[in-house]
Amino acid sequence: MRNYELMFVVRPTLEDEATLQVLANVKKVLEQEKVKIVSEKNMGRRELAYEVKGFKNGNYFLLVVEATPEAVAEFDRVANINEDIIRHIVVRVEE
């Protein structure tokens, strides 16, 4: 298992409840892949550096996890499919 930081941006047009549901869905996928969530941070709504899919703001979430490369690949696949996630990044944390 390796440590990763998973950051994703949810579109700002969603209601707060729907935004939290996107987070719950991501966590459910990670739990199915047997990922250990070390920490979770809701960074709130922030302005994007540039317009993404027509949005100038987004709701940022950061998850620090212990996962296998296959589990991270599954997160990447799900984030690409989900229309509510407008941008995501995975960073492997060096120990």
Task: Give descriptors for this structure.
single chain; 2 helices; four-stranded antiparallel sheet; 49% strand; 4 strands; 32% helix; 95 residues; alpha+beta; Alpha-Beta Plaits
Task: Describe the protein in words.
It contains 2 helices and 4 strands; from the N terminus they run βαββαβ. By secondary structure, it is α+β, with helices and mostly antiparallel strands. The chain has one domain: 2-Layer Sandwich (Alpha-Beta Plaits), CATH 3.30.70.60. A 4-stranded antiparallel β-sheet has the order 2-3-1-4, covered by helices on one side. The radius of gyration is 13 Å and the shape is globular.
Q: Helices and strands, in N-to-C order?
A: EHEEHE
N-to-C CA distance: 12 Å
Strand arrangement, major sheet: 2-3-1-4
Largest sheet: number of strands, sense, barrel closure: 4 strands, antiparallel
> Which superfamily, in CATH terms, is the homologous superfamily?
Ribosomal protein S6/Translation elongation factor EF1B
- Kindly state the number of beta strands: 4
CATH fold-level label: Alpha-Beta Plaits
- Rg for CA atoms: 13 Å
Q: Which word captures the global form?
A: globular
Q: What is the class in the CATH system?
A: Alpha Beta
Helix content: 25-40%
CATH architectural group = 2-Layer Sandwich
Estimated structural class: alpha+beta
| Domain count | 1
> Low-confidence stretches at least 5 residues in length (pLDDT < 50)?
none
| Strand content bin | over 45%
Mean pLDDT: 93
Helix count, per DSSP?
2
